[in-house]
Amino acid sequence: MSQLLLSYSKILEIVGDLVKVYVPEPDSNTTGNIGFGDLAIIENPLDPAQLPALAQVIEMDRDRISLQVFSGTKGLSTQASIRFLGHSMQVAFSTNILGRAFSGVGVPIDGGPDLKEEPHIEIDGPTVNPARRVLASRMIRTDVPMIDIFNTLVESQKIPIFSVAGEPYNQLLAQIGAHADADIIVFGGIGLIFDDYYFFKKAFEDAGVLAKTVMYVHLGSDPTVEALLVPDMALAVAERFAVDEGKRVLVLLTDMTAYADALKEVGVAMEHVPSNRGYIGDLYSQLARRYEKACDYKGAGSVTILSVTTMPGDDVTHPVPDNTGYITEGQFYLHDGVLDPFGSLSRLKQHVIGKVTREDHGQIMNTMVRFYAAAQDAQQKQAMSFELTEYDLRLLRFGDLFRKRFMDISVTIPLEKALDLCWKTLAECFEAEELLMKQDLVDKYFPVGSQRS
């Protein structure tokens, strides 16, 4: 910038991690208006040894500006001076960030070299022009049978994993990241404990994908405001890789409920009137602004978003999953350690099933789910001590095989082999004429000479 911004020292109030400062109307000696989201440096003249604190503008009310201090306001005096930087939060962007891990403010946490000299981009850009979007038509393989076969993940899709605390959703997310056929993996962790961060990093390293992965991690011990920056950092970098480099980018976020809780905490500190269950009134808009970054760009790459959304009390009407469901294109429902074929839904799967996948994909998907639903009915009959027919017993066997071979999230298998395993499982439990499938598919794929017990 051609002029230096003036420092302001009239701090009106310090509440929690918020600082409210009086800023007079701009005149000829200033560089112009301060913008929402702009960064500022806070220096404490009473303690020169104290490092300057970084803050961000989060509310503007005429000549009163509220700043969220990233490192907290402990030890901060009302005599401190505030210098606005004239730009919003930025993050390093180049191929050198691949294989690296950063904090919620973009500082390396992996012991690697600093990237201050690398090009930086602002993280709060608008969503892409709809005219540059193309219809989703390509599949992202994950090698997770319950996703690839029954609820296919499609490029440019935005879809959450609905779950509850204690379920292995981080294990599932890491497994997807380790096997997904994406060019770039961008991971955003919100409110993680250190063990979770280490687990993800080791999982990516062991799978050999760390070199194409960049991680942004907010630990539970980090300032709350950093949690709000992680999704924006991850998505800004993903968007640049897709647009500038033409890469197919998969963004993994966990946990978006922790993100919403951070929004609520900041809203309480700012004395905003709460909405449903104490969450901010614009929760839908805040979530949608992030999820809408998912896009398949015309003439470039794509951004696909897969996030974890925990449901407190397993309540799908909770404000976070409820709002998420209106924004996203389906959900993966994880409970009791497995992906539920009935609670899960990918609304874009029809764009790829049978079109970019094998011809029998659609038929095998429907048939497997139909028999599993019948197996659930047979299991209820068994639990109620009704007499079971020979067909019921075969349904029960099919249900056991289905859960073991497909629903277990630790199973990883390529799509084509998974489809073949579906045919094998059906042949072990039923006759060909019982499948009620297209005869030409049965003739082509039903195992010849298979033994049914």
UniProtKB/TrEMBL annotation:
SUPFAM superfamilies cross-referenced by the UniProt entry: P-loop containing nucleoside triphosphate hydrolases (SSF52540)
Source taxon at top rank: Bacteria
Any single GO BP term: proton transmembrane transport
UniProt xrefs under InterPro entries: ATP-synt_VA_C, ATPase_F1/V1/A1_a/bsu_N, ATPase_F1/V1/A1_a/bsu_nucl-bd, P-loop_NTPase, V-ATPase_su_B/beta
GO molecular function: ATP binding
Keywords: Ion transport, Transport
Protein purpose: Produces ATP from ADP in the presence of a proton gradient across the membrane. The V-type beta chain is a regulatory subunit.
UniProt-recorded name of the protein: V-type sodium pump subunit B
Organism whose genome encodes this protein: Nitrincola nitratireducens
Lineage: Bacteria, Pseudomonadati, Pseudomonadota, Gammaproteobacteria, Oceanospirillales
